[in-house]
Design brief:
There is one protein chain. By secondary structure, this protein is mainly α. The protein has one domain. The chain has five helices and no strands. Helix 1 runs antiparallel to helix 2, helix 2 runs parallel beside helix 5 and helix 4 runs antiparallel to helix 5. The longest helix is centred in the last third of the chain and has 31 residues. The two termini are about 35 Å apart.
């Protein structure tokens, strides 16, 4: 069971991640209908999450706060789903395929690279 303080810190970290996500969507508003901000948030999250879990001096609670709180609220599968549907509704089939392909395949590749890099780095210390 998580302590009330841990839950509070996850709550605060979630707010920070949500604000960062909103800021990114304001900063990366390309106006052409392609959901670049969501793609960027999800790919950055795929890169950062393995790093958080490989930080050797970070205790499990800290990993939970950073991973679930900040990164979990920064990335968004639900927005990815809705934006994918909007691309289909607007008959932007090519952008739809690029978006889902880049999100899924790109996210997995970035996670694998980040995980592999951090695993080697921790093993070499």
């Amino acid at each position: 069971m998580l302590s009330k303080l841990t839950v509070f810190f996850i709550f605060i970290a979630g707010g920070i991640g949500a604000i960062l996500r909103y800021g990114l969507s304001i900063y990366i508003d390309n106006g052409d209908g392609f959901p670049l901000a969501t793609l960027t948030a999800n790919l950055v999250g795929c890169f950062l999450l393995p790093i958080v879990f490989f930080i050797p001096k970070l205790n499990p609670t800290g990993k939970l706060i950073l991973g679930t709180g900040i990164i979990g609220s920064f990335t968004t599968f639900s927005t990815f789903s809705v934006e994918s549907i909007k691309l289909l509704q607007n008959n932007q089939f090519f952008l739809f395929l690029v978006y889902i392909g880049t999100t899924i395949v790109g996210g997995l590749l970035i996670s694998i690279l980040s995980y592999s890099y951090m695993g080697r780095r921790v093993a070499n210390k």
